[in-house]
Write a structure and sequence with these properties.
The structure is a single chain. The protein is built from five helices and two strands; from the N terminus they run αααββαα. By secondary structure, the protein is mainly alpha-helical. It has one domain (2-97): Winged helix-like DNA-binding domain superfamily/Winged helix DNA-binding domain (Arc Repressor Mutant, subunit A, Orthogonal Bundle). It has a two-stranded antiparallel ribbon. The protein starts with a helix and ends with a helix. This is HTH lysR-type domain-containing protein. One of its GO terms (cellular component) is protein-DNA complex.
Length: 104
């Protein structure tokens, strides 16, 4: 979840510095988190340029999905209302069709 939140914050803030500040991280830590996510997904999500980060096609696709996942997790927490402890883990092995529409 931390990786998803970091990626979404970067996209919303537009710079690593502002996103890192929002998340109370250092810029290098945020950069490593996004790079870890890209490594796990085996795709480039962000092109790092002089004008700031720009999303790739896969980055745009992943952003939409990441936002939905984070929204669903927030709703789940609210629905449970503290009645139970929820532990979520993600096996970073995604179905092969995760980016099927993008890579085709």
């Amino acid at each position: 979840m931390r990786h998803l939140a970091a990626f979404v914050a970067l996209c919303e803030e537009g710079t690593y510095t502002r996103a890192a500040t929002r998340l109370h991280l250092t810029q290098p830590s945020l950069s490593r988190t996004v790079q870890d996510l890209e490594r796990v997904l085996d795709t480039e999500l962000v092109v790092r340029g002089t004008r700031g980060p720009e999303l790739t096609v896969d980055g745009h696709e992943f952003l939409a999905r990441a936002r939905r996942i984070l929204t669903d997790l927030t709703a789940l927490r609210n629905d449970l209302g503290g009645r139970a402890e929820v532990r979520l883990g993600f096996a970073w092995l995604l179905p092969s069709d995760w980016f099927a529409g993008v890579r085709a």
